[in-house]
Amino acid sequence: MREVIIIGSGPAGFTAAIYAARAQLTPLLVASSLETGGELMKTTEVENFPGFPEGIMGPDLMGKLQEQAERFGTEVIYDDAISIDIAGPVKKVTLENGGTVEASALIFATGSAYRTLGLAEEEALSGHGLSWCATCDGFFFRDKTIAVVGGGDSAMEEATFLTRFASKVYVIHRRDSLRASKIMQQRAFDNEKIEFVWNSDVVAILGDTEVSGVRLRSTGDGSERDLALDGLFVAIGNDPRTHLVHGLLDLNPDGTIALQGRSTKTSVAGVFAAGDVADPTYRQAITAAGSGAAAAIDAEHYLAARGTETAHAEQPGRGDLSR
Ligand code: NAP
């Protein structure tokens, strides 16, 4: 049995792994079957992670965190956790491949998932002019007219990035002021290719097989109008990815995992949470990384308190992890 399993491969997960590995807890990190690295894999330049005065590309930062975690003995498996059993002292994680892994402590760092507009046509048009990732799909909109929905940092970042390709980028926001940080707002305001569409809700995405526009409803007088577009990017925030722990861990009213005081301890002994999945407030790469470090330290203290036998627990055979 392992000492620590970490679920999630964003800044929180890999920082927890670095700390747990350096504490010689030989952590196993369940990354994902699709993409390791979390949301930063979909961003461009990260300018506010300390230590990189010139900025660093999101995927490069995640690559470095993984390299650092593996250097100290973290084992990464590229699979999805599909269920967990955490009631007893042994925490069991079932993987998509059918295997199970067990540990005395579990760190939950599953991050958050993109929020959708909740429109019926979203599923059909996703990948057909509708996207949640400017860095992934921006290239397809060279010299096109597109729009970004949202008023936070993500929307400003996406809109600014997309002006590299598109000839025109509308930012559609439901209010008349932005939630984004001042520097990100100013960058968007200063960009000649960006035009703001204020006080507007997207009530329909138009197009049968490809996005051809959106129907907007004024939040003031309720009037509707259509805006012709070649593409639409949705950047309206994220929701904590907690589907694995529903009914198992206490959650806050906003859906994040509830923690005890300033610790990373959840409502179940031996289970810790870090990063966006437990953070309704800060949700930055650096705060996620910081909470990942705290979770590893909390897990280390928990294991030490349980007795030295857990610190020398047997490693599982790798056979049970193979597909
Ligand atoms: P966010 O700050 O929660 O902003 C979401 C935006 O989408 C808000 O403007 C919100 O409008 C709007 N919105 C939410 N639901 C909507 C809906 N159903 N229809 C239309 N609009 C909707 O999310 P975020 O921009 O993804 O940022 C998340 C966190 O990551 C933040 O802490 C942010 O600072 C951080 N972040 C940082 C950077 C950076 O520093 N480089 C980049 C990206 C993200 P209201 O304003 O009316 O609520």
The CATH topology name of the largest domain reads FAD/NAD(P)-binding domain
What percentage of residues falls in helices of 4 or more residues? 10-25%
- Rg measurement, Å: 21 Å
DSSP strand tally: 19
Describe the main β-sheet briefly. Answer: 7 strands, mixed
How would you name the CATH homologous superfamily of the largest domain? Answer: FAD/NAD(P)-binding domain
The structure class reads alpha/beta
Counting copies of identical and different chains, the oligomeric state is single chain
Low-confidence stretches: 316-323
General form = elongated
Q: How many structural domains does the protein architecture include?
A: 2
How big a fraction of the residues is strand? Answer: 25-35%
**Bound small molecules, deduplicated:** NADP nicotinamide-adenine-dinucleotide phosphate
Total of helices: 8
List the helices and strands in order. EHEEEHEEEEEHEHEHEHEEEEEEEHH
* CATH class (first level) name of the largest domain: Alpha Beta
Tell me, rounded to a whole number, the average pLDDT.
93
InterPro entries: FAD/NAD-bd_sf, FAD/NAD-binding_dom, Ferredoxin-NADP_redctase_2, Pyr_nucl-diS_OxRdtase_2_AS, Thioredox_Rdtase
Keywords: Disulfide bond, FAD, Flavoprotein, NADP, Oxidoreductase, Redox-active center
GO molecular function, one term: thioredoxin-disulfide reductase (NADPH) activity
Family: Belongs to the class-II pyridine nucleotide-disulfide oxidoreductase family.
